[in-house]
Specification:
By secondary structure, the chain is α+β, with helices and mostly antiparallel strands. It contains two helices and five strands, in the order βαββαββ. Helices cover 24% and strands 28% of the residues. Strands 1-4-5-2-3 form a five-stranded mixed β-sheet, sandwiched between helices.
């Protein structure tokens, strides 16, 4: 899976803004991309909510993304927001 790290200085990006930026980046090379999993550390929520997917300490939502054709992991501000796209 390709990994992209984004750091934004001078402006506090919220979850919805980060998701839109991530979508634009994911669609750059693939018109049929789909958001598979995500994490919002500010709110302490993630999707999907599968608890039994955790492997070797990796969070379940990230394992799910990797195992369901995730090709691109986009992280904002040191994993504050993370989006995994097909």
């Amino acid at each position: 899976m390709e990994k992209i790290e984004c750091s934004i200085y001078g402006y506090a990006v919220n979850f919805d803004q980060a998701r839109e930026i991530g979508k634009i980046m994911a669609e750059e090379e693939n018109d049929f991309t789909m958001l598979i999993s995500w994490c919002d550390r500010d709110k302490g929520v993630h999707s999907p909510q599968c608890l039994k997917c955790e492997i070797k300490g990796d969070p379940a939502w990230e394992v799910y993304g990797r195992n369901h054709e995730g090709r691109l992991r986009i992280s904002f501000d040191e994993d504050r927001f993370v989006f995994i796209y097909s």
